[in-house]
Design brief:
Distance between the termini: 22 Å
Largest sheet: 5 strands, mixed
Shape: globular
CATH topology: Gyrase A, domain 2
CATH architecture: 2-Layer Sandwich
Order of helices and strands: EEHEEHHE
């Protein structure tokens, strides 16, 4: 796990996003592993975006939109699987 990884969840009507911020680019491999496992187990396929703001600040955003995802608890289950798999203990609500 990245030493300084944080998880932020943002929810709006018809939209939910988990943003993971981390300082170690190799953490992306772990994120992809747990996203892949959650996709397989839950048969949910969100949009996943990776970006780097500077050499010490990386982000991965996992976005869910549309009634198929938002009108059920499956998005929350997906987020819990990824965050707990990564060992992140606390999510910040945006």
């Amino acid at each position: 796990m990245a030493e300084n990884a944080t998880a932020v969840v943002r929810m709006e009507e018809g939209y939910m996003r988990l943003t993971l911020e981390y300082d170690d680019p190799t953490f992306k491999t772990d994120i992809c592993k747990y996203v892949g496992e959650a996709e397989k187990d839950l048969e949910i396929y969100p949009e996943v975006l990776h970006r780097r703001d500077n050499p010490k600040k990386w982000f991965t955003s996992i976005e869910f939109s549309g009634d198929d995802y938002i009108c059920s608890r499956s998005c929350g289950d997906f987020i819990e699987m990824v965050v707990s798999g990564l060992g992140i203990k606390k999510c910040i609500s945006d």
